[in-house]
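User: My instructor asked us to take a sequence, write out its structure as tokens, and then describe one feature of it. I'm not sure where to start. Here is the sequence I was given:
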Amino acid sequence: MAAKLEFTSRRSPIVCTAGCVASSQPLATNIGLDILKKGGNAADAAVAVAAALNLTEPCSTGIGGDCFCLYYKAETKQVYGLNGSGRSPRALDIDLLKGQGFDEENPLPPTHAHNVTVPGAAAAWVDTVSLFGSKKLSLGDILQPAIELAENGFPVSEITAYSWQAQASLLQAPHNKHGAELLINGQAPKHGQIFKNPYLANTFKVLSKFGKEGFYKGRIAEAIVQVVKDNGGVMELEDLASHVTEEVHPICTTYRTDINVWELPPNGQGIIVLMTLNILENFHIKDMGHNTSDYIHLLVEALKLCISDCQWFCTDPCFSPIPTAELLNKAYSKKQAHLIDLQRASGNSSHGNPFEAGKDTVYFTVADSQGNACSFINSNYMGFGTGLVPKNCGFTLQNRGGNFSLSPGHPNCLAPGKRPFHTIIPALVTTADTQDLLCSFGVMGGFMQPQGHVQVLLNMAEFGMNPQQAVDAARFYVKHSKKDQKWHLYLEDGIPREVAENLKLRGHEVHWPVSGYERMLFGRGQVITKGDWWRQGQHAINDRKVWWAGSDPRADGCALGYCMSPGAAEKNSPFM
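Assistant: Let's start with the prediction itself. The structure tokens for your sequence are:
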């Protein structure tokens, strides 16, 4: 396998008038498009894509993990949200871990079975179809393309093969009795090698036939509990049987008076995006220029403030009240903006006081001919998660519990039956006045996600980039290290040397250039826009009948769309 990944080609944005799908895997994108053509809507297609990605990118996502969904319903111009994250086992608490020698200073290994939280994806897939689907296709119809692909096999894509190989040791470990279900003769599949997963096909068949009960009760549930207990965990069948998806009210902020940006509320980190945009609208972003040292410095300093707040206040709202309204208060954001030194990097990582003011994941998005859009994200957390494979199930179990704090008194401290702080976030953008849909987008990648949302959105809203240009552009990533208690700033290849040097002079711990396969650090985004609202001034065509889409070059995927005949479009589309 090549050790270097070159970025030497370019893509044009996809433009179409009917359905559109953008994902990190071409086979999954195509499956979503087929569901649209069969009469399914954006929600139906999103679940079909989620299932296909479980098969084609198991080192990033799967039914053994969690998912979140934002759905824009064109008929009502409303944004709906689903929280598909699972809870910790009821028998797991901080005292049990302390007795086993684990605490904040000596945390659990990332792949420990105690980090397995209840997988929420299966229930959320079913609920997405039930609540938002077209009702023209059954769950079986929606999952059938992934079932057939699992049974017949598919050739593995390049970046997926690289990630699969990098994490193969998890599946090959002696304690992982059934890891071979995701290997070929004990090895990770190579780029272009055909991989089959009949066990996953059977899991999807059970979900198709029996719905949520087929996953959270019976053989699959028993296999999950058994592999967790075999590896030192304490999950019980009741933990699975009691799981439910939560319907939530999305949160939003108005940026520059003209667009509303929508995210899901905590326990996810989407609130970072909204808080950061609130701070940034106090500055003249466009005048700074794209990816200049002034621009990157400002965004980094704003993100530091918001990340620090979120990592304290963001938790399961069933256990601790979250001051969402206070954190999104424009007065608090203005106060935070005054803390930014435009010439010097801050080393502070402490959260503010809003009361004084009044790693691996897949993201994909689908839009349909009725004007609906589904912004969807599904994850195992770190690659294969724990890597643990329930017997004859064909998927791995997530390690999302690794995001709990083990410090007593912290809002996000581990507790029985609690949802952890969550990294995966989908996003939508609507007009502030009429609530018309403008954009469905997201950027996967652990703690990079809110940073990616901000950068990709500003690429369009401030600098007039089309969706493909917006995800192509070089990105940065800022991360606080517990090891040295410093903020580290990673700059992607494509950001000029002089910018990196200037940021060093301002006090940033700069890592530049990050290139090749390491670019995955900056996440993988997908974007669909309705019309060309991102174009500046007189250059805009303002044709609301056209979908525009882009897919991140840091992944294997693509965006695809199609156009209907004039008669069909006139009959089915509210755009006409």
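For the description part of your assignment, you could build on this observation: The first helix runs from residue 26 to 37. Try explaining in your own words what that tells you about the chain.
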